[in-house]
Amino acid sequence: MADAGLIFTCFGCCCGHTNNGAARFSPPAMRRAFDAAGLQGRVRLAFSECLGPCSEANVVFVYLHGRPLWFKRINTPDLFAAVFAYVRAAVAAPDTSLSDELMAHSFSWTGGGVGLELA
Ligand code: FES
Fold this sequence. Notes:
24% strand; 119 residues; alpha+beta; binds FE2/S2 (inorganic) cluster
């Protein structure tokens, strides 16, 4: 079975780097959280170079069931876990809504998304 989607976690010039004001994160720890969320084999997790909206670091892009979602300022392990939990729920039920917490971190950017468009 093909993966239902992709999670691109930006680890470019700003995201994950405290010298630019973003919160540090550890890709190996993220991968462990991804595995713990039961997403292995369902969704692909990748760490990318700069995705573009650096002012919103840490940025996560999710492409699931043909739908793009952008998340900004995912700066704590709990927020990363919330993204993974949403993706896990939405793999099984594509109409799953974003929680209020994740909606506050969602934005529109290149290719679409949900929430306010970045200027
Ligand atoms: S470094 Fe993450 S958006 Fe630019």
